[in-house]
Model the fold of this input.
Amino acid sequence: MSIKRRSRNGAFLIELLTAIAIFAVCAAACVRVIGIAASEMKYAERLSDAQLKTADIAECYKSGESISELSQRYADGDIRIQLSERTSGNIQYLDITASDDENTYITITSARRVAS
Amino acid sequence: MKNSARSENSRKSLNSIGLSSLLVIFVVLASVTLSVMCLITVRQDLDRAKKLAVTHEEYYSADTKATEKLDSLYLLLANDSVTDISAAARELGIEVTGGNRENRVLTFSWSETVNSGSRLVCKAEYENENLVITSWKIISNNYYEEENSLPVWNGESLPV
Done:
């Protein structure tokens, strides 16, 4: 009776240890997948944010706002907005770049005509 | 005596072989399914954001070209030595409808390709030495193609 019970407990222990090992491997894989998803989600959010900010700046520039006003607009935030202005003839161009420490998300050029 | 037998039974059911495996299979399946679904959703969001970013860049590139063309139109209209504005505008790639500069309204229209699916169409009217932009919008190149390959049944009986 005692031998039968001991062998039964041993089998249960082996099964439990195997199950824990499998669970640990799968949990590690799941954590890795969720980690990748989290980093990609962060990138997608920042890309969308960068799009909105650059579009806003481009349209405000076209409507006549000065570069100093525009550079103040999104000075605080996760995304760094770099503005550089150049003039060619009657047209002023504003190169807008949205980036952070790791990535450059978007670069667009807005143009406006200035009366000669 | 009875109590000890009951506790023995409950311990047996708890220690039964296969229960922990079933639990692990259930938990692993659930967590793997959830994490894969999470990754798929995020990838879709990221793809959409990237496509939007590319469209955004293409739009502003076309917008800059259209602004340059508008500037060349302003310069053309400011140049009094140009008599045939229509011909001069056509040379710049701008379509013109209307008469001469003196007595009629001139309508200028030009377009810039944004991408394979859309273009930026601009229109401006010139009247009384004043150029006014009347339209600056994106138009899709895609059009609805009517399905007319099969004749419409008009109620006649089918041939047997």
